Amino acid sequence: MSAATHVLEIDGLTLRLPRTARPVLDGVDLTVGASEIVALVGESGSGKSMTLRTALGLLPRQAAVGGSVRVAGEDVLTMTPARLRDLRAGTVSMIFQDPRAAINPLRRLGDFLTESARINGGAGGERAAVRARHLLAAVGLTDRVLSQYPHELSGGMLQRIMIASALMNDPGLLLCDEPTTALDVTTQAEIVALLADLRNTFGTGMLFVTHDLGLAAAISDRVFVMYAGRIVEHGPAGSLFGAPRHPYTAALLDSTPRLEAPSERLAAIPGQPPDLRAPLSGCPFAARCAYAIERCRAERPEPENGVACHRAGELVLATVREGDRPRA
Ligand SMILES: Nc1ncnc2c1ncn2[C@@H]1O[C@H](COP(=O)(O)OP(=O)(O)OP(=O)(O)O)[C@@H](O)[C@H]1O
């Protein structure tokens, strides 16, 4: 895919916070194409949300940032505040884990939907109302919800409202931060199917952050695996889940519960991810990796053909659930 068709292009992104011994994000490269769904997966604290938020220019105070984050070709990290406001109002939208926390409980949902379009996109009231009705139909809701309040709707319906609201200004990029984690399993599947559908209808590129590999396999075209602020492996969902090349990806797959066998014993990844207060040398996963050799502890592996592992060329990774991976 050529650079011109990327709605998001993150290049060598580093982010360092005060009183830490290593960068929170350490040379992240990631792209999302138009109409493409890209999943960013990894354990808690690996830097997924932080990466996602940089696309909106949302950085922690006192963060020292390097590299570039281009949205529709423009670098977010060097934008003026006014341009950044425009970007957030049109080009990029975001949906969160808990829709109830993001919607004012005292306003009717119709006002919630049309307000952001009128303020941000400058669309007149009537145009915003037409767009809202169109999007409600696209997310599978009726006009009836326009006069309802948030407490009258289920979590799944509210997440549909959030998605409709995020699409009001026709963004090229939709950032999804664990958007189904708070929902029951059936509703999760419905929302995932809906998002997949919408990218076809509206041509929206999506960056989907999740720690659920089954979900990533179900929704994404490509997957990026993050560990300790670095991308350790990326590739098309089918090949990455079918034949992982990084020991961390294989370990994550082994620790993913399956819908059809939720009580099966899972292989937990031994140890803990590295603490931000401890400096890192060599491969960040070496301390927990069953395949680590001396070189892994001494020398940082640079990404090559989509995988950052000194032993990628020689390892054929067996997993406890060989042949039974999440379906892409
Ligand atoms: N504003 C902040 N100030 C200081 N440290 C932060 C801040 N935000 C995040 N961190 C730290 O940065 C690291 C990455 O956090 P991030 O939220 O991106 O991880 P994540 O992979 O999204 O995890 P989760 O799945 O739990 O959301 C964590 O160690 C976190 O504690």
UniProtKB/TrEMBL annotation:
Please provide the record's keywords in A-Z order.
Answer: ATP-binding, Cell membrane, Membrane, Nucleotide-binding, Transport
Report the PROSITE patterns cross-referenced here: ABC_TRANSPORTER_1, ABC_TRANSPORTER_2
Organism per entry: Microtetraspora fusca
Q: Name one GO molecular function term.
A: ATP binding
This protein's record includes keyword ATP-binding: yes
CDD domains hit by this protein: ABC_NikE_OppD_transporters
The identity of this protein, by name, is ABC transporter ATP-binding protein
InterPro entries, per this entry? AAA+_ATPase, ABC_Ni/Peptide_Import, ABC_transporter-like_ATP-bd, ABC_transporter-like_CS, Oligopep_ABC_C, P-loop_NTPase
